[in-house]
Amino acid sequence: MQTYRKLLVLLLFSAAAASMTGCGAPKSSTGQDFSTQQAADSKAAEEPSNMILLNNVLYHDAGRTVYTMPDHTDGTIQSVTANATAPSCNEEANFDCKGASYCILADGAAGVITDEAAGTCELFLADDTVEFQGVYKKRKELSADTLKWLSFYYSLSESDRNALSMIPSEFAGQVAGTGTYASETDATGTSYLEALTQEELNATEALAQYYFTEEVTSFEGVDQIYPADSSDPQYHNSGIEDDYGPGNIIIYRVLTNLDRRDGNPFRYISIARKSKSDDWKIINSGF
Fold first, then answer.
1. Start-to-end Cα distance in the chain
2. pLDDT for res 165
3. Which one, of 252, 247, 251, 240, lies nearest residue 278 by Cα?
4. 59 CB-contact burial (10 Å; exposed 0-12 / middle 13-18 / buried 19+)
5. Do residues 188 and 227 lie in contact, with contact meaning Cβ atoms separated by under 8 Å?
Protein backbone atom coordinates (compact mmCIF):
# COMPACT_ATOMS: atom_id res chain seq x y z
CA MET A 1 0.00 0.00 0.00
CA GLN A 2 2.84 2.40 0.85
CA THR A 3 4.45 1.74 -2.55
CA TYR A 4 1.14 2.43 -4.32
CA ARG A 5 0.75 5.80 -2.54
CA LYS A 6 4.27 6.86 -3.52
CA LEU A 7 3.59 5.94 -7.12
CA LEU A 8 0.32 7.92 -7.12
CA VAL A 9 2.05 11.01 -5.71
CA LEU A 10 4.76 10.81 -8.38
CA LEU A 11 2.16 10.53 -11.15
CA LEU A 12 0.21 13.54 -9.85
CA PHE A 13 3.39 15.62 -9.53
CA SER A 14 4.46 14.75 -13.09
CA ALA A 15 1.03 15.74 -14.48
CA ALA A 16 1.13 19.08 -12.67
CA ALA A 17 4.62 19.82 -13.96
CA ALA A 18 3.60 18.97 -17.52
CA SER A 19 0.62 21.33 -17.38
CA MET A 20 2.84 24.18 -16.16
CA THR A 21 5.57 23.71 -18.76
CA GLY A 22 3.31 22.70 -21.65
CA CYS A 23 0.06 24.64 -22.27
CA GLY A 24 0.83 27.38 -19.80
CA ALA A 25 3.96 28.76 -21.43
CA PRO A 26 2.58 29.56 -24.90
CA LYS A 27 -0.46 31.32 -23.41
CA SER A 28 1.75 33.50 -21.27
CA SER A 29 4.01 34.34 -24.22
CA THR A 30 1.08 35.15 -26.50
CA GLY A 31 -0.53 37.33 -23.87
CA GLN A 32 2.73 39.18 -23.31
CA ASP A 33 3.22 39.77 -27.04
CA PHE A 34 -0.35 41.05 -27.38
CA SER A 35 0.07 43.40 -24.43
CA THR A 36 3.35 44.69 -25.87
CA GLN A 37 1.70 45.34 -29.24
CA GLN A 38 -1.24 47.07 -27.57
CA ALA A 39 1.14 49.30 -25.67
CA ALA A 40 3.05 50.14 -28.84
CA ASP A 41 -0.15 50.92 -30.75
CA SER A 42 -1.45 53.04 -27.89
CA LYS A 43 1.82 54.95 -27.69
CA ALA A 44 1.78 55.64 -31.43
CA ALA A 45 -1.85 56.78 -31.33
CA GLU A 46 -1.16 59.14 -28.42
CA GLU A 47 2.00 60.69 -29.86
CA PRO A 48 1.90 64.25 -28.44
CA SER A 49 2.14 67.34 -30.59
CA ASN A 50 4.64 70.13 -30.03
CA MET A 51 3.11 72.87 -27.88
CA ILE A 52 4.06 76.21 -26.37
CA LEU A 53 2.33 78.30 -23.70
CA LEU A 54 2.44 82.07 -24.17
CA ASN A 55 0.40 84.65 -22.25
CA ASN A 56 -1.73 81.83 -20.81
CA VAL A 57 -2.69 80.60 -24.29
CA LEU A 58 -1.73 77.08 -25.40
CA TYR A 59 -0.53 76.85 -29.00
CA HIS A 60 -0.14 73.67 -31.10
CA ASP A 61 2.39 73.18 -33.90
CA ALA A 62 0.58 73.61 -37.25
CA GLY A 63 3.37 71.80 -39.09
CA ARG A 64 4.23 74.56 -41.54
CA THR A 65 6.52 77.56 -41.94
CA VAL A 66 5.33 81.17 -42.13
CA TYR A 67 7.08 84.51 -42.40
CA THR A 68 7.25 87.58 -40.23
CA MET A 69 9.29 90.78 -40.20
CA PRO A 70 13.04 90.04 -39.98
CA ASP A 71 14.46 90.44 -36.47
CA HIS A 72 10.97 90.82 -34.98
CA THR A 73 10.63 88.85 -31.73
CA ASP A 74 8.44 89.08 -28.64
CA GLY A 75 10.45 86.90 -26.27
CA THR A 76 12.23 83.59 -25.85
CA ILE A 77 11.26 80.11 -24.67
CA GLN A 78 12.46 79.93 -21.07
CA SER A 79 11.83 76.30 -20.13
CA VAL A 80 11.02 72.89 -21.57
CA THR A 81 8.75 70.28 -20.00
CA ALA A 82 8.32 66.59 -20.81
CA ASN A 83 7.22 65.83 -24.35
CA ALA A 84 4.16 63.90 -23.16
CA THR A 85 2.76 66.79 -21.10
CA ALA A 86 1.29 70.17 -21.96
CA PRO A 87 3.29 73.23 -20.88
CA SER A 88 1.98 74.80 -17.67
CA CYS A 89 4.15 77.93 -17.43
CA ASN A 90 4.29 80.88 -19.79
CA GLU A 91 7.17 80.78 -22.28
CA GLU A 92 7.40 77.01 -21.83
CA ALA A 93 7.43 74.31 -24.54
CA ASN A 94 7.20 70.53 -24.55
CA PHE A 95 9.93 70.03 -27.16
CA ASP A 96 13.61 70.96 -27.39
CA CYS A 97 13.62 74.69 -28.18
CA LYS A 98 14.83 76.37 -24.99
CA GLY A 99 16.26 79.79 -25.81
CA ALA A 100 14.48 80.02 -29.17
CA SER A 101 12.86 83.35 -29.98
CA TYR A 102 9.15 83.61 -30.67
CA CYS A 103 6.77 86.23 -32.01
CA ILE A 104 3.02 86.79 -31.78
CA LEU A 105 1.66 86.78 -35.33
CA ALA A 106 -2.01 87.42 -34.56
CA ASP A 107 -4.65 86.72 -31.94
CA GLY A 108 -4.33 82.95 -31.55
CA ALA A 109 -1.21 82.59 -33.70
CA ALA A 110 2.47 82.52 -32.74
CA GLY A 111 5.71 81.56 -34.40
CA VAL A 112 8.89 79.99 -33.06
CA ILE A 113 11.70 81.65 -35.01
CA THR A 114 13.79 79.31 -37.15
CA ASP A 115 15.74 82.01 -39.03
CA GLU A 116 15.63 85.42 -37.36
CA ALA A 117 17.36 87.28 -40.19
CA ALA A 118 14.99 85.88 -42.81
CA GLY A 119 11.92 86.14 -40.61
CA THR A 120 10.94 82.47 -40.98
CA CYS A 121 9.22 80.66 -38.15
CA GLU A 122 7.34 77.49 -37.31
CA LEU A 123 3.63 78.27 -37.04
CA PHE A 124 1.71 77.53 -33.84
CA LEU A 125 -2.05 78.01 -33.53
CA ALA A 126 -4.50 78.12 -30.64
CA ASP A 127 -7.39 75.64 -30.80
CA ASP A 128 -9.86 78.37 -31.83
CA THR A 129 -7.73 79.77 -34.68
CA VAL A 130 -7.08 78.80 -38.31
CA GLU A 131 -4.69 80.18 -40.93
CA PHE A 132 -4.88 80.39 -44.71
CA GLN A 133 -2.03 81.93 -46.71
CA GLY A 134 -1.05 84.30 -43.92
CA VAL A 135 -4.60 85.29 -42.94
CA TYR A 136 -5.73 84.29 -39.44
CA LYS A 137 -9.36 83.83 -38.40
CA LYS A 138 -11.33 82.39 -35.52
CA ARG A 139 -13.14 79.14 -36.23
CA LYS A 140 -16.44 80.66 -35.10
CA GLU A 141 -16.16 83.25 -37.91
CA LEU A 142 -16.11 80.59 -40.63
CA SER A 143 -18.75 78.30 -42.10
CA ALA A 144 -18.63 74.56 -41.56
CA ASP A 145 -17.92 74.10 -45.28
CA THR A 146 -14.90 76.41 -45.16
CA LEU A 147 -13.50 74.64 -42.09
CA LYS A 148 -13.97 71.31 -43.85
CA TRP A 149 -12.21 72.64 -46.94
CA LEU A 150 -9.30 74.00 -44.90
CA SER A 151 -8.90 70.61 -43.23
CA PHE A 152 -8.75 69.01 -46.66
CA TYR A 153 -6.40 71.73 -47.99
CA TYR A 154 -3.82 71.18 -45.27
CA SER A 155 -4.00 67.41 -45.68
CA LEU A 156 -2.38 67.88 -49.11
CA SER A 157 1.33 68.02 -49.78
CA GLU A 158 2.84 71.48 -50.24
CA SER A 159 3.14 70.97 -54.01
CA ASP A 160 -0.54 69.97 -54.26
CA ARG A 161 -1.55 73.00 -52.19
CA ASN A 162 0.46 75.27 -54.46
CA ALA A 163 -1.35 73.82 -57.47
CA LEU A 164 -4.71 74.99 -56.11
CA SER A 165 -5.82 78.49 -57.02
CA MET A 166 -9.14 78.49 -55.19
CA ILE A 167 -9.55 80.88 -52.27
CA PRO A 168 -12.55 80.46 -49.93
CA SER A 169 -14.88 83.45 -50.15
CA GLU A 170 -14.36 84.21 -46.44
CA PHE A 171 -10.66 84.84 -47.18
CA ALA A 172 -11.08 86.52 -50.59
CA GLY A 173 -9.62 90.01 -50.84
CA GLN A 174 -7.48 89.43 -47.73
CA VAL A 175 -4.83 87.14 -49.19
CA ALA A 176 -1.84 89.04 -50.57
CA GLY A 177 -1.98 89.52 -54.32
CA THR A 178 -5.72 88.90 -54.73
CA GLY A 179 -8.75 91.10 -55.12
CA THR A 180 -12.17 90.40 -53.71
CA TYR A 181 -13.44 87.11 -55.15
CA ALA A 182 -10.79 87.35 -57.87
CA SER A 183 -9.90 83.70 -57.59
CA GLU A 184 -13.51 82.54 -57.71
CA THR A 185 -14.71 84.31 -60.85
CA ASP A 186 -14.39 83.57 -64.53
CA ALA A 187 -13.31 85.98 -67.27
CA THR A 188 -16.77 87.61 -67.35
CA GLY A 189 -16.73 88.26 -63.61
CA THR A 190 -19.37 85.61 -62.89
CA SER A 191 -18.54 82.97 -60.30
CA TYR A 192 -19.45 79.41 -61.21
CA LEU A 193 -19.70 78.59 -57.52
CA GLU A 194 -21.84 81.56 -56.52
CA ALA A 195 -24.16 80.96 -59.48
CA LEU A 196 -25.35 77.76 -57.77
CA THR A 197 -27.33 77.35 -54.58
CA GLN A 198 -26.04 75.21 -51.75
CA GLU A 199 -28.71 72.65 -52.64
CA GLU A 200 -27.41 72.51 -56.22
CA LEU A 201 -23.83 72.15 -55.03
CA ASN A 202 -24.86 69.31 -52.72
CA ALA A 203 -26.70 67.56 -55.56
CA THR A 204 -23.80 67.83 -58.01
CA GLU A 205 -21.23 66.69 -55.46
CA ALA A 206 -23.45 63.70 -54.63
CA LEU A 207 -23.57 62.85 -58.35
CA ALA A 208 -19.77 63.01 -58.55
CA GLN A 209 -19.44 60.83 -55.46
CA TYR A 210 -21.88 58.31 -56.95
CA TYR A 211 -19.95 58.15 -60.23
CA PHE A 212 -16.62 57.30 -58.60
CA THR A 213 -18.12 55.00 -55.97
CA GLU A 214 -21.07 53.17 -57.53
CA GLU A 215 -21.03 53.70 -61.30
CA VAL A 216 -17.33 53.01 -61.83
CA THR A 217 -16.42 50.83 -58.87
CA SER A 218 -12.80 50.39 -59.99
CA PHE A 219 -12.06 53.88 -58.63
CA GLU A 220 -12.85 52.49 -55.15
CA GLY A 221 -14.63 55.63 -54.01
CA VAL A 222 -13.61 59.22 -53.33
CA ASP A 223 -10.78 60.21 -51.01
CA GLN A 224 -11.03 63.99 -51.53
CA ILE A 225 -13.25 66.29 -53.61
CA TYR A 226 -13.58 70.07 -54.01
CA PRO A 227 -15.08 72.48 -56.59
CA ALA A 228 -12.62 73.69 -59.22
CA ASP A 229 -11.80 77.38 -59.27
CA SER A 230 -13.79 79.46 -61.76
CA SER A 231 -10.55 80.36 -63.53
CA ASP A 232 -9.86 76.67 -64.22
CA PRO A 233 -9.22 76.38 -67.98
CA GLN A 234 -11.38 73.25 -68.07
CA TYR A 235 -14.43 75.54 -67.94
CA HIS A 236 -13.39 76.88 -71.35
CA ASN A 237 -12.82 73.52 -73.01
CA SER A 238 -14.22 74.22 -76.49
CA GLY A 239 -17.12 72.04 -77.58
CA ILE A 240 -17.82 70.54 -74.16
CA GLU A 241 -17.64 72.58 -70.93
CA ASP A 242 -17.46 75.88 -72.82
CA ASP A 243 -21.00 75.31 -74.10
CA TYR A 244 -22.41 75.84 -70.58
CA GLY A 245 -22.51 79.07 -68.62
CA PRO A 246 -22.44 79.81 -64.88
CA GLY A 247 -25.46 78.36 -63.14
CA ASN A 248 -25.59 75.32 -65.39
CA ILE A 249 -22.16 73.75 -64.90
CA ILE A 250 -19.79 72.84 -62.09
CA ILE A 251 -16.43 71.10 -62.24
CA TYR A 252 -15.02 69.14 -59.33
CA ARG A 253 -11.44 68.08 -58.72
CA VAL A 254 -11.45 64.56 -57.33
CA LEU A 255 -8.81 62.30 -55.83
CA THR A 256 -10.11 58.73 -55.89
CA ASN A 257 -8.86 56.04 -53.53
CA LEU A 258 -7.38 54.22 -56.53
CA ASP A 259 -5.49 57.31 -57.71
CA ARG A 260 -4.16 58.10 -54.24
CA ARG A 261 -2.77 54.57 -53.92
CA ASP A 262 -1.25 54.69 -57.42
CA GLY A 263 0.21 58.17 -56.94
CA ASN A 264 -1.98 59.80 -59.61
CA PRO A 265 -3.04 63.47 -59.51
CA PHE A 266 -6.56 64.82 -58.99
CA ARG A 267 -9.06 64.08 -61.74
CA TYR A 268 -11.79 66.43 -62.91
CA ILE A 269 -15.45 65.64 -63.42
CA SER A 270 -17.74 68.11 -65.20
CA ILE A 271 -21.44 68.13 -64.34
CA ALA A 272 -23.85 70.28 -66.35
CA ARG A 273 -27.44 70.82 -67.48
CA LYS A 274 -28.95 72.66 -70.43
CA SER A 275 -31.24 74.79 -68.29
CA LYS A 276 -32.51 75.17 -64.74
CA SER A 277 -35.41 72.82 -65.53
CA ASP A 278 -33.16 69.97 -66.73
CA ASP A 279 -31.45 67.26 -64.70
CA TRP A 280 -27.75 67.34 -63.90
CA LYS A 281 -25.60 65.04 -66.04
CA ILE A 282 -21.92 64.13 -66.15
CA ILE A 283 -20.56 65.51 -69.43
CA ASN A 284 -16.82 64.92 -69.06
CA SER A 285 -14.19 63.38 -66.80
CA GLY A 286 -10.46 62.79 -66.90
CA PHE A 287 -7.06 64.14 -65.86
1. 92
2. 66
3. 247
4. buried
5. no
- State how far the Cα of 90 lies from the Cα of 76, in Å rounded to an integer: 10
* Residue 200 to residue 277: CA distance in whole angstroms: 12
Same domain, 56 and 111: yes
Burial level of 159, CB count in 10 A (0-12/13-18/19+)? exposed
The contacts of residue 142 (CB under 8 Å, 6+ apart) are 130, 150, 168, 170
d(CA 39, CA 21): 27
Angle at 181 between CA 180 and CA 184, to 5 degrees: 160
DSSP-derived letter for residue 186 is: -
Q: How far apart, in Å, are the Cα atoms of 159 and each of 114, 154, 234? A: 22, 11, 20
User: At which of 104, 127, 150 does a domain end?
Assistant: 127
Q: What confidence tens digit (pLDDT) does each residue in 69-87 have?
A: 777 789 999 999 999 899 9
Backbone angles phi, psi at 233, to 5 degrees: -60, -20
34: containing domain: 2-45
Residue 56 CA to residue 185 CA, distance in Å, equals: 42
Residue 119 lies in a domain: yes
- Indicate the number of domains in the chain: 4
Pairing of strands 135-138, 129-132: antiparallel
Write out pLDDT tens, residues 149-183. 898 888 888 777 777 767 777 887 676 544 333 33
57: β partners: 54
From the list 167, 140, 283, 139, the residue with the least C-alpha distance to 227 is 167
Predicted confidence at residue 47, as pLDDT, reads: 59
Strand runs (DSSP E) across 84-207, as ranges?
92-93, 101-106, 109-115, 120-125, 129-132, 135-138
- Under-50 pLDDT residues of the chain: 1-45, 177-188
